[in-house]
Amino acid sequence: MPDTEKDTTWYEDGLSFECTQCGNCCTGPPGFVWFDEDEGEAMAEHLGLTVEAFHKKYCKKKQGRWTLDEVSTRNGFDCVFLRRDPEGKSLCSIYPVRPTQCRTWPFWPENLKTTRHWARAAKSCPGMKNGGTFYPVEQVRVILGQNKD
Ligand code: SF4
After folding, report:
1. Kindly report the CA angle at 109 between 71 and 5, in degrees rounded to 5?
2. Distance 61 CA to ligand 1 centre (A)
3. Ligand 1 atom 7, closest CA
Protein backbone atom coordinates (compact mmCIF):
# COMPACT_ATOMS: atom_id res chain seq x y z
CA MET A 1 0.00 0.00 0.00
CA PRO A 2 1.36 3.46 -0.82
CA ASP A 3 2.51 5.67 2.02
CA THR A 4 -0.45 8.06 2.02
CA GLU A 5 -2.61 9.84 4.59
CA LYS A 6 -5.14 7.01 4.20
CA ASP A 7 -2.66 4.24 4.93
CA THR A 8 -3.59 2.91 8.38
CA THR A 9 -2.33 -0.60 7.85
CA TRP A 10 1.42 -0.01 7.76
CA TYR A 11 1.75 -1.07 11.42
CA GLU A 12 -0.28 -4.29 11.04
CA ASP A 13 2.80 -6.25 12.08
CA GLY A 14 3.13 -4.26 15.29
CA LEU A 15 5.64 -1.66 16.45
CA SER A 16 8.54 -1.58 18.87
CA PHE A 17 9.24 1.14 21.38
CA GLU A 18 11.32 1.50 24.52
CA CYS A 19 11.77 4.85 26.23
CA THR A 20 15.44 5.78 26.73
CA GLN A 21 14.55 8.55 29.20
CA CYS A 22 16.17 11.20 27.03
CA GLY A 23 13.40 13.64 27.95
CA ASN A 24 12.96 15.04 24.43
CA CYS A 25 9.20 14.52 24.50
CA CYS A 26 8.92 16.49 27.75
CA THR A 27 10.76 19.59 26.52
CA GLY A 28 11.39 21.63 23.38
CA PRO A 29 9.39 24.55 22.05
CA PRO A 30 6.42 25.77 24.11
CA GLY A 31 3.59 23.26 23.94
CA PHE A 32 0.68 21.78 25.79
CA VAL A 33 0.18 18.84 28.12
CA TRP A 34 -3.57 18.61 28.25
CA PHE A 35 -5.41 16.75 31.00
CA ASP A 36 -9.04 16.21 31.89
CA GLU A 37 -10.84 16.62 35.20
CA ASP A 38 -10.19 13.05 36.42
CA GLU A 39 -6.52 13.32 35.54
CA GLY A 40 -6.27 16.68 37.31
CA GLU A 41 -7.82 15.16 40.43
CA ALA A 42 -5.43 12.21 40.32
CA MET A 43 -2.38 14.47 39.97
CA ALA A 44 -3.58 16.77 42.74
CA GLU A 45 -4.21 13.82 45.08
CA HIS A 46 -0.81 12.32 44.26
CA LEU A 47 0.80 15.61 45.25
CA GLY A 48 -1.34 16.01 48.38
CA LEU A 49 -2.99 19.15 47.03
CA THR A 50 -6.51 20.29 46.42
CA VAL A 51 -7.40 20.57 42.75
CA GLU A 52 -7.51 24.35 43.12
CA ALA A 53 -4.04 24.47 44.68
CA PHE A 54 -2.71 22.10 42.00
CA HIS A 55 -4.08 24.31 39.22
CA LYS A 56 -2.60 27.40 40.81
CA LYS A 57 0.84 25.90 41.40
CA TYR A 58 1.42 23.75 38.32
CA CYS A 59 -1.05 24.59 35.54
CA LYS A 60 -2.36 27.23 33.21
CA LYS A 61 -5.56 27.51 31.26
CA LYS A 62 -5.30 27.77 27.48
CA GLN A 63 -8.06 27.62 24.89
CA GLY A 64 -10.52 26.89 27.70
CA ARG A 65 -8.59 23.82 28.88
CA TRP A 66 -6.02 23.04 31.55
CA THR A 67 -2.44 22.28 30.56
CA LEU A 68 0.64 21.70 32.70
CA ASP A 69 3.09 24.55 33.22
CA GLU A 70 6.48 24.60 31.57
CA VAL A 71 9.81 25.82 32.89
CA SER A 72 12.32 27.53 30.62
CA THR A 73 15.66 25.67 30.81
CA ARG A 74 18.79 25.37 28.66
CA ASN A 75 17.15 22.31 27.10
CA GLY A 76 13.97 24.12 26.13
CA PHE A 77 10.61 24.44 27.80
CA ASP A 78 10.58 21.52 30.22
CA CYS A 79 7.34 20.12 31.61
CA VAL A 80 7.07 21.37 35.18
CA PHE A 81 7.24 17.75 36.38
CA LEU A 82 10.36 16.73 34.43
CA ARG A 83 13.40 15.94 36.58
CA ARG A 84 16.90 15.32 35.22
CA ASP A 85 19.27 13.13 37.21
CA PRO A 86 23.08 13.57 37.25
CA GLU A 87 23.51 10.78 34.66
CA GLY A 88 21.40 12.75 32.18
CA LYS A 89 18.32 10.59 32.48
CA SER A 90 15.00 12.41 32.48
CA LEU A 91 12.28 11.25 34.81
CA CYS A 92 8.65 12.19 35.24
CA SER A 93 8.12 13.06 38.90
CA ILE A 94 4.41 12.19 38.70
CA TYR A 95 4.88 9.10 36.52
CA PRO A 96 2.12 6.92 38.08
CA VAL A 97 -0.50 9.62 37.44
CA ARG A 98 0.84 11.25 34.29
CA PRO A 99 -1.89 12.34 31.87
CA THR A 100 -3.10 10.17 28.98
CA GLN A 101 -1.29 12.42 26.52
CA CYS A 102 2.01 11.33 28.09
CA ARG A 103 1.04 7.69 28.69
CA THR A 104 0.06 7.16 25.06
CA TRP A 105 3.24 8.57 23.45
CA PRO A 106 4.36 7.68 20.77
CA PHE A 107 1.14 5.96 19.68
CA TRP A 108 -0.57 9.22 18.79
CA PRO A 109 -2.89 9.54 15.77
CA GLU A 110 -0.56 12.03 14.10
CA ASN A 111 2.43 9.67 14.46
CA LEU A 112 0.51 6.64 13.21
CA LYS A 113 -0.83 8.23 10.03
CA THR A 114 1.93 6.81 7.83
CA THR A 115 5.45 5.45 8.07
CA ARG A 116 6.66 8.93 7.17
CA HIS A 117 4.88 10.46 10.16
CA TRP A 118 6.29 7.76 12.45
CA ALA A 119 9.82 8.29 11.09
CA ARG A 120 9.51 12.05 11.50
CA ALA A 121 8.54 11.70 15.17
CA ALA A 122 11.34 9.16 15.68
CA LYS A 123 13.92 11.79 14.74
CA SER A 124 13.52 13.32 18.18
CA CYS A 125 12.49 10.15 20.05
CA PRO A 126 15.25 7.55 20.15
CA GLY A 127 12.85 5.16 21.88
CA MET A 128 10.99 4.73 18.60
CA LYS A 129 14.13 3.49 16.89
CA ASN A 130 15.86 1.28 19.41
CA GLY A 131 13.63 -1.80 19.30
CA GLY A 132 12.69 -2.78 22.83
CA THR A 133 9.17 -3.72 23.80
CA PHE A 134 7.07 -5.10 20.97
CA TYR A 135 3.50 -3.79 20.69
CA PRO A 136 1.19 -5.99 18.58
CA VAL A 137 -1.25 -4.08 16.40
CA GLU A 138 -4.14 -4.86 18.77
CA GLN A 139 -2.28 -3.17 21.61
CA VAL A 140 -1.34 -0.20 19.42
CA ARG A 141 -5.02 0.23 18.60
CA VAL A 142 -6.03 0.07 22.27
CA ILE A 143 -3.48 2.76 23.18
CA LEU A 144 -4.53 4.82 20.17
CA GLY A 145 -8.12 4.63 21.37
CA GLN A 146 -7.14 6.04 24.77
CA ASN A 147 -5.89 9.24 23.22
CA LYS A 148 -8.56 11.85 23.83
CA ASP A 149 -7.28 14.57 21.51
S1 SF4 B 1 11.56 11.29 23.47
FE2 SF4 B 1 11.15 9.07 23.39
S3 SF4 B 1 12.97 8.10 24.30
FE4 SF4 B 1 13.01 10.28 24.87
S5 SF4 B 1 11.95 10.40 26.89
FE6 SF4 B 1 10.39 10.76 25.31
S7 SF4 B 1 9.52 8.73 24.91
FE8 SF4 B 1 11.48 8.41 25.97
Report:
1. 130
2. 26
3. 19
